[in-house]
Amino acid sequence: MPKDPNRAAEMAVFVRVVEAGDFSGAARALGLSPSAVSKLVARLEARLGTRLFRRSTRRLALTSEGETFHARAAAILAEIDAAEREAGGARLPAGRVRIASSASYATHVLAPLLPNFLERYPDIALDIVQSDAITDLVADRTDLAIRAGPLESSGLIARSLGETALVVVGSPSWIERHGMPATLADLALHDRLGFSYPRASGDWLQPARSEDSRVRVNDGEGIRQLALAGVAPARLAAFTIRDDLAAGRLVRLLPLDSTPPREAFHAIYVGRSDTLPQRVQVLLDELTIHGIVRD
């Protein structure tokens, strides 16, 4: 009977190669020779019956099968680590969590809950990547991503984080210079702040003016700061400007009886929730309880 392969060890070597970007770097980290690492990966590929890497003289790149296997292998190894910690009495989750979030969500929702979360889980570390752009979780090695707007069909799993109204606002200084517009058509005659990439929620001016924004920004928090400075009006998520409206730093530009569109927020991750590493699971649970977006 053939000897069973040490699959966890093979996964660990494979994941280390992905992290290092080449066999030599992984070999140094593991205390092995580059040829030994290469042979282990080749044996793993032979057993799986698929290529995990595209090899060239200069670099390694994951195949699509390799990307999928890496995501699952990393999660499995994290679960093994968690099981060993729990068996030894170290029950608190540990490790680094990489989370991709818009600057707006990070500033107004994530930041306020982090002090308590990090105090309760002293062995968890965070990498927070701020961007409004859609993230490829597997390629970017992201554990969780916060996404706004409707979700496209994919193999990813989503957990609802609430929704918010999208409100058209301007600063008092802008209103003083240009007057208060009565309708969206009036507002379309003026410059407005927009996003520098297509948004799932669509454009908020007439189609003929959709590309006419003189100033475009790649994140909502940047747009908020420019709106506060009086550069131009903007359409912003209500939870990001609640305090600005209350303090008079921004003013709603359209009639209060108009019904603004709403935008949903979700936490996105790869794989089933019962296979998530504990370090990711506890953060996801925290967001589900305290990271809900509300008007």
Strand and helix layout:
Layout: H1 7-20, H2 23-30, H3 34-48, E1 53-55, E2 60-62, H4 64-87, E3 95-101, H5 103-120, E4 124-130, E5 144-148, E6 157-170, H6 172-178, H7 184-187, E7 193-195, E8 215-217, H8 220-228, E9 234-237, H9 238-247, E10 251-252, E11 262-269, H10 278-290
Parallel strand pairs: 3-4, 3-5, 7-8
Antiparallel strand pairs: 1-2, 5-11, 6-9, 6-10, 6-11
Helix pairs in contact: 1-2, 1-3, 1-4, 2-3, 5-10
Short account of what is shown:
By secondary structure, the chain is α/β, with parallel strands linked by helices.
What is the percentage of strand-forming residues?
15-25%
Structural class: alpha/beta
What is the radius of gyration computed over CA atoms, rounded to a whole number of angstroms?
24 Å
The number of helical segments is 10
What is the name of the CATH class of the largest domain?
A: Alpha Beta
**Assembly classification:** single chain
Features:
alpha/beta, D-Maltodextrin-Binding Protein, domain 2, 10 helices, elongated
Notes on the protein architecture:
The protein has 295 residues and is α/β, with parallel strands linked by helices. It has three domains: 7-87, Orthogonal Bundle (Arc Repressor Mutant, subunit A); 95-162 and 264-290, Periplasmic binding protein-like II (D-Maltodextrin-Binding Protein, domain 2, 3-Layer(aba) Sandwich), CATH 3.40.190.10; 164-261, 3-Layer(aba) Sandwich (D-Maltodextrin-Binding Protein, domain 2), CATH 3.40.190. Helices cover 41% and strands 20% of the residues. The chain is built from ten helices and eleven strands. The protein has helices spanning 7-20, 23-30, 34-48, 64-87, 103-120, 172-178, 184-187, 220-228, 238-247, 278-290, and strands spanning 53-55, 60-62, 95-101, 124-130, 144-148, 157-170, 193-195, 215-217, 234-237, 251-252, 262-269. The strands form three sheets. Strands 3, 4, 5, 6, 9, 10 and 11 form a seven-stranded mixed sheet that branches. A hairpin with a 4-residue loop joins strand 1 and strand 2. Mean pLDDT is 83; it is low at 206-210.
